[in-house]
Design brief:
The complex is a heterodimer of chains A (about 325) and B (about 475). By secondary structure, chain A is of the alpha/beta class. Chain A has ten helices and eleven strands. With about 475 residues, chain B is of the alpha+beta class. Chain B is built from 15 helices and 16 strands. The chains are: A alpha/beta (about 325), B alpha+beta (about 475). The complex binds iron/sulfur cluster (2 copies).
Chain lengths: ~325, ~475
């Protein structure tokens, strides 16, 4: 029998959903364990951060890294695992694009701290106490990792070989990734560097509502709670913003089938670079009732009135990766 | 010079956590700190979002209990629009939510908690996991656990689109009803779930309570804290996970206060400590007296045991029987034994399964009338549910367009922050003597906070394994000994 390959699974600024998604493979998890030894998985198994230091450089074959980068510890872990691994995979939307917590990039550390520890209704903090990296106590010093000004994607802090999008990646997508891992275990084959392990085209291409799509302009944008949503008709036809045209396929239309529009967790499709700018320029020409509220982003001036929250709608999962935002990096 | 023992990483709420245990020169415990080392700032970045999107954003706080955030958020949205959802929608949400509770409770017990007792905390380390448990219980029971847990996930995804990615709940109800076929499937699963819930409680009694070593441990002073308890109750004072008033009892078991969720700010405040990213909620009207228990200290606990203590019982027949048996075992009306959280969890699971049976057998559950369109101008709303790990508060304010201006969240595990911190300290003080700490002792310290099922313990649930833990003993900043459980 061939030598088993070595896999590490790590989380950084994550909710745990990516790890649960792997656990939800249930008996398929054993497909992984038959070809690979999991040498590090702090969420699920008895391994320690310290163990990582002991591994030789490049001695781990593949690291699946989930979560975004916000604290000094996240960054150190990313750098350490990069050093120890031959292949680095950004797993899940947070690692790939910054994900939901990446929306925090419209503000900075101070904004987040003031809100969390002072301004929130139940916080009682008359002495303005905030978490600190070093706190001296009689009995010893307590340390915390530092908190960066902004959220970084994984590939903003280390070199990434492959991307597995999704919040969390769906069953089929994870199996796809497992197939690649198996191929590598078998004969060392790997796809082209930078490959995004999901579909290629926009989500619309796999959506079962797409035959109801016409090319008419959207007359009025409505929000999902403002109208009874027809379960068979394209959301855009119904005036509801759906990120399907700007989002990579591969999720199996999870939200669409629950009669809710896509919010873009799989990131931009193959030929698109930036989900937000793509969406804004399209909606700019598809909406007719542009009257007086405009949004301005760099060169763009578009009548997307009644889209109340372009940032949170178009960059729900990808703000740290957005063009408008490339200066928000303290990871490099 | 003092020594320090660091346990890291442990389970987490918003990030990884660690525990530092300080020893004096003689190697006895002087202090300990439970630290959460991460923050993501949901309260800040939800500002500016359309409020109806929050039920899809908030579940990303925790991939282990996304269902709880989805529900609390939807309820807060209903309140923001001052809208009453149709009865059928409420029933469907309750069905979803009881499945969520059942899934979480079952997993915690079988994959994480039970191996401490069967084969036991002092068993060979490689056996102290779900596989070791299955060796004792038999493979059939093991498979049964996986199957029933799968059912609970399945029910959630039928109703909400996906178990880790729930999306169907919106202000005014749900985006879609369920079909008759789906309902029939749920009905069938529900009966097996209820039966297995009964089996689980029996297993707890046979394997744990019937063993004097564990019985003594559960009753031991090492695992006791006399605190306040909080939980949600219905009109009759019975446990309700989805809706009701918040009831708090004092350490004597007397009602301290019962309040409407909307008034939570009159009763709860949160303290900030510089050495952790997680705040410490406490009862405002008792006050913060430091990390200590007792009637004078505003620290309260949440989660299963707290809910049982704060309620007058269960609204379903089988769970009520189990509830009565629980209190007669301890021969008191209020139970402070931290390890009893486990037993309480199984009783709640039985209740959740009885509710799933009841709701899925009601013909109205396929009623397509699951939505109303909000008409009022949005403003402010508070949504509270009992998450698997305790009371969960979502509080939103919006402008007249329904764009969020303020968010306040008090999550379940935060409310047990002080409880976990104290429990670790007491266990460490009682168990570590003169620097002596072996694996079995560390396991017993770990059991003190595992009883709370702190959030990411859940992820650990499904895999053979246990919570990772490393201990370093430090002297003059130098590591003099390091120990790792295999
Ligand atoms: S990508 Fe989604 S599921 Fe994964 S850690 Fe981030 S928020 Fe959680
Ligand atoms: S429909 Fe969109 S938001 Fe939903 S899972 Fe698919 S890609 Fe993600």
């Amino acid at each position: 029998m061939k030598n088993k390959i070595k896999i590490a699974i790590n989380w950084a600024g994550a909710c745990g959903g990516c790890d649960v998604a792997i656990l939800d493979l249930e008996e398929k998890v054993f497909d992984i364990t038959s070809i690979a030894d999991i040498v590090y998985w702090p969420v699920a198994m008895d391994f320690k951060r310290k163990d990582l230091f002991d591994y030789d450089d490049k001695s781990i074959d593949i690291t699946l890294f989930n979560g975004m980068i916000r604290t000094s510890e996240h960054k150190e872990d990313a750098q350490l695992l990069r050093k120890k691994s031959k292949v680095m995979i950004a797993f899940g939307s947070c690692a790939c694009f910054g994900g939901i917590p990446g929306m925090a990039n419209f503000t900075d550390k101070k904004g987040v701290f003031d809100c969390s520890y002072k301004d929130t209704a139940s916080s009682f903090n008359p002495d303005n106490i905030f978490p600190e990296i070093n706190v001296k106590k009689k009995s010893g010093t307590l340390t915390l990792p530092s908190f960066q000004n902004h959220v970084n994607t994984l590939d903003q802090v280390v070199d990434v070989d492959y991307f597995v999008p999704g919040c969390p990646p769906t069953y089929d997508i994870i199996l796809k990734a497992v197939t690649i891992i198996a191929g590598y275990a078998d004969n060392g084959d790997l796809p082209k560097k930078g490959t995004i392990i999901a579909g290629k085209n926009a989500l619309c291409s796999e959506c079962r509502r797409n035959n109801s799509m016409t090319s008419k302009v959207i007359e009025k944008i409505v929000r999902p709670h403002e109208k009874m949503i027809d379960p068979d008709i394209c959301f855009l036809e119904q005036g509801i913003i759906c990120m399907g045209p700007f989002t990579r396929s591969g999720c199996g239309s999870t939200c669409i089938d629950a009669n809710m529009p896509c919010r873009g967790c799989f990131g931009p499709a193959e030929n698109q670079y930036d989900q937000g700018t793509e969406a804004m320029s399209t909606f700019g020409s598809a909406v007719t009732t542009g009257q007086d509220d405009y949004i301005v982003r760099g060169e763009m001036l578009r009548p997307v009135n009644s889209i109340k929250d372009p940032l949170g709608t178009f960059y729900r999962f990808s703000l740290p990766n957005a063009i408008i935002n490339k200066n928000m990096k303290d990871g490099k | 010079m003092s020594k320090k023992i660091t346990i890291s990483p442990i389970t987490r709420l918003e990030g990884h956590g660690k525990i530092d245990i300080m020893l004096d020169d003689d190697g006895n415990v002087t202090d300990s700190y439970f630290q959460v080392v991460e923050l993501r700032g949901f309260e800040k970045f939800c500002q500016g979002r359309p409020v109806e999107e929050l039920p899809r954003i908030m579940p990303k706080i925790c991939g282990v209990c996304p269902g709880a955030h989805h529900m609390a958020s939807s309820k807060a949205c209903d309140a923001v629009y001052n809208i009453e959802i149709p009865k059928a929608a409420e029933n469907l949400r309750r069905l979803f939510y009881n499945a969520h509770m059942s899934h979480s409770h079952l997993l915690h017990f079988f994959a994480l908690a039970a191996p401490d007792f069967v084969p036991g905390f002092d068993a060979e380390p490689g056996k102290r996991n779900i596989l070791g448990l299955i060796e004792v219980l038999g493979l059939d029971t093991g498979k049964q656990v996986m199957k029933i847990r799968g059912y609970a996930q399945k029910i959630q995804s039928i109703i909400a689109g996906h178990a880790i990615h729930p999306v169907s709940s919106i202000p005014g109800g749900l985006s879609k009803p369920i079909t008759k076929d789906q309902r029939d499937e749920i009905k069938k699963m529900s009966l097996e779930m209820r039966e297995f819930a009964g089996v689980s409680i029996q297993l707890f009694k046979d394997l744990i309570l019937a063993n004097d070593k564990y019985k003594d441990m559960i009753l031991s002073d090492t695992y006791i804290h006399k605190t306040y308890y909080m939980g949600m109750v219905d009109d009759n004072g019975k446990i309700d996970f989805y809706d009701g008033d918040i009831r708090v009892v004092d350490p004597m078991g007397e009602e301290f206060v019962e309040f409407k969720p909307e008034n939570y700010l009159d009763h709860i405040a949160e303290r900030v400590e510089p050495w952790t990213y997680l705040k410490f909620p406490y009862l405002k009207n008792v006050g913060w007296k430091g990390r200590v228990d007792g009637k004078e200290s505003g620290i309260y606990r949440v989660n299963s045991l707290a809910r049982l203590n704060a309620s007058t019982g269960m609204s379903t027949a089988l769970a009520q029987e189990a509830y009565e048996e629980f209190y007669s075992f301890f021969n008191t009306t209020i139970v402070h034994n931290t390890l009893a959280f486990h037993w309480a969890r199984l009783i709640e699971n039985l209740y959740a399964c009885e509710e799933i049976v009841r709701l899925s057998h009601d013909d109205d559950i396929i009623n397509p009338d699951v939505r109303v369109i909000p008409t009022e101008t949005p403003g402010e709303g508070i949504g509270v549910v009992e998450a698997p790990r305790g009371t969960l508060y979502h509080h939103y304010k919006t402008d007249a367009n329904g764009i969020v201006t303020d968010v306040n969240l008090i999550v379940a595990t935060a409310q047990n922050n002080a409880g976990m911190d104290m429990s670790v300290r007491r266990a460490a003080k009682n168990l570590i003597k003169n620097g002596a700490s072996d694996d079995a002792i560390l396991d017993q310290i770990e059991m003190a906070f595992r009883a709370y099922d702190p959030c990411l313990a859940c992820a650990t649930h499904a895999m053979p394994g246990k919570m990772p833990m490393e201990v370093s003993i430090l002297q003059n900043g130098q590591k003099i000994r390091s120990m790792k459980r295999k």
